[in-house]
User: Fold these one by one.
Assistant:
Number 1:
Amino acid sequence: SSGNDGRTRLWDVRTGTELYSMGFGPRNADYASAVFAGNEGYIAGATSNVRVADVTIFDSETGSPVFTKLGMHQMPVRALEASPVDSTFITACDDHNARYFVLEEKNAA
């Protein structure tokens, strides 16, 4: 899940226990989104916070950041969607640009 505090959280749906809280401190955001990406090996998180204005990729097994900023957006990210069939995701931003990303799958030979 993600919220207007700018943090992305991974939960155990069976127990309701928070497994990981991912992010870099409190950030006010009007919009926040998190999606599984890369065959669920990663979690992509984005917020509309101007200071964060980018996408962060976390390892879904450890909660550790893999990429702290992709560096492609200079304005708030308003949309984030991952493909259900491959390791790609797309973002949309207040700069009126959509960007397409390809993640290298974990444990790739």
Number 2:
Amino acid sequence: SCKSHARFQNGPAKVIHMGMSHISGEEMLAGLKRHFAPGTYDLLKKNCNSFVDCALFYLLRRRLDGKYRILEQMLECIDDYVAFVRILSMGEYMPNPKAN
């Protein structure tokens, strides 16, 4: 079974077929790894949805549906001005400067 879905007891909640690409996984990794280097993760700015959006575009020239990113985009915008997420997380969330 897929390790990335191990936390789901009955598999992922939903699998959406987005298309097929002639680009290999190795080629995609080579093209994206400099943008997702170790230590650059950020809860709002560079997370798994960010990676999926970039991978989809790299492979298929398609974007991740905005409904999967709207909440984090709104929170990022608000947090930039009033530290909303940092306040809600009682200081646990701090923006990662390496994510830019």
